[in-house]
Specification:
single chain, 16 helices
Length: about 475
């Protein structure tokens, strides 16, 4: 059976669906970009204490993310499985973006600020996962044929990059002293961080409303799969027996390790390693990177349509690997600008293959099990995203501890600068090399992919016929 029958999905629906990426990525990237610098350099929590907080957060995620994914797959409602979770997460997530930057003082004056920090991490993750996991699950369920999925994926990546550009550049125009190099102005700096959080919260409200109003519809023939969901433990075991998924975990984890290390250390790296003290220039560098990634998206879409998601990933990761190592040894603005343009090109490919590969994995799983279990797969990937942050923070703590920079002090020595270059270059380079191996061994390609597409179309037609 030919699977290339085009879906009837309007341009307006696809664009409204992609709006979810704006709220999603403003939330995640504002968090990733500012949380470490804010609580380390402004609130003065020592890096070893922060690392303990992030490890406790990871233990929470080990239960929270798979449980939400499982419950989502089993949810029964008049709106389907995914939409109730998305509605319930919208307002809390927007509010938490504001609470993120309203701690009860600094660590020096009130050590309970660490407890506040940990609670905010946990609440943020619960709200973010509840929306993001179900939003991503709907992507593979609403957009099934390759061309519709590819074109919608292009819109999603463009919106992702635009939102990321905003999240990484807007703070540099609002916060005068992003690394708090003058502690005497800490109250001003904290108020500017808070303004950033309020702006992020408003954007989340607006763009989540747009997708919920015009961009999502839970397919009825797949919503019925909630009736046949496996028990929780069996679901987890079945997921980790999927060999294609296991190979994909290498590039998936690697992608998020590298994506998350850039915003986490960018303020400190640009100021102390590259010597750029003007926050607006930092914003320009980040803006150029994501503009290049956005402009490259149509090219990655063409590569994906002609050669498959796996090939797209191989090229993207290769370019990314080389550029990230060179970028880390930039010594001035112009050198950083050149290498970040190449970095942006590789980033565009890295983001594009990720969405497409996981959708193909979920397709294959449905063919095997007979049930669409998107929620549990995105739950595991969400946990990997948080796990990548933990790996990064542990690595940051090891480097900062070994260079005697456990407590933030402006103008660090040569050892700290060398450590920053290692964290931004050698470490991500090793991670991407391992990702490249996993991507090379990813087995859904060629004839296997074509057979999967045909089988999936036949299965979905039977499911639709069963509800008529």
């Amino acid at each position: 059976m030919n699977e290339e029958r085009p879906q009837k999905m309007s341009l307006g629906t696809r664009l409204a669906f992609a709006c979810g990426e704006v709220g999603d990525n403003v939330a995640l990237n504002t968090f990733s970009f500012l949380v470490f610098t804010f609580y380390f350099a402004v609130i003065d929590i020592p890096s070893p204490i922060m690392t303990i907080g992030f490890i406790l957060w990871a233990l929470w995620n080990a239960v929270n993310d798979p449980l939400i994914g499982y419950l989502s797959d089993k949810t029964k409602s008049r709106w389907g499985r995914r939409i109730p979770w998305m509605i319930g997460a919208t307002i809390p997530l927007g509010i938490l973006m504001i609470l993120l930057f309203t701690p009860p003082g600094t660590y020096d004056t009130n050590q309970l600020v660490f407890v506040y920090f940990l609670i905010i991490l946990i609440l943020f993750d619960f709200a973010y996962t509840a929306f993001n996991l179900n939003y991503n699950a709907l992507f593979s369920e609403m957009f099934v044929d390759m061309r519709t999925r590819s074109s919608t994926g292009r819109f999603r990546i463009i919106f992702t990059l635009l939102a990321t550009m905003f999240a990484l550049t807007f703070p540099t125009f609002i916060i005068d002293d992003i690394t708090n190099s003058n502690p005497a102005n800490v109250d001003i700096t904290m108020s500017q961080y808070l303004i950033t959080g309020i702006a992020a919260g408003i954007i989340i409200f607006v763009f989540y409303f747009l997708i919920l109003k015009w961009g999502v519809k839970d397919p009825k023939h797949l919503s019925k799969d909630a009736e046949n969901a496996m028990p929780f433990i069996k679901t987890i075991k079945f997921t980790f027996k999927h060999k294609s998924f296991l190979w994909f975990l290498f590039p998936a984890l690697g992608t998020w390790l590298v994506i998350n290390i850039l915003p986490t250390l960018a303020p400190l790296f640009f100021v102390y390693a590259v010597g750029i003290t003007d926050t607006e220039l930092i914003g320009i560098l980040l803006l150029v990177t994501f503009l290049v990634a956005a402009v490259s998206t149509p090219l990655w879409e063409q590569i994906r349509v002609r050669k498959g998601a796996r090939f797209c990933g191989l090229i993207g990761i290769s370019v990314w690997l080389v550029s990230v190592v060179l970028f880390a040894y930039s010594v001035d603005f112009w050198m950083a600008l050149i290498f970040m343009m190449f970095f942006g090109f590789g980033l565009g490919g890295g983001l594009y293959f990720y969405d497409q590969c996981i959708a193909e994995i979920i397709d294959e799983d449905e063919i095997t099990s007979g049930v669409r279990r998107s929620g549990i797969y995105y739950a595991v990937l969400n946990f990997l995203i948080r796990l990548s942050m933990i790996f990064n923070f542990v690595m940051i703590n090891l480097v900062f501890t070994s260079t005697n920079w456990m407590d933030y002090t402006p103008n660090p020595g040569v050892d700290v600068i060398a450590g920053l270059r290692f964290l931004m270059g050698i470490y991500p380079g090793i991670v991407l090399a391992l990702s490249l191996i996993g991507m090379f061994l990813f087995p859904i390609k060629g004839e296997r992919l074509k057979k999967n597409r045909a089988k999936l179309t036949e299965m979905h037609e039977k499911k639709k016929a069963s509800i008529l």
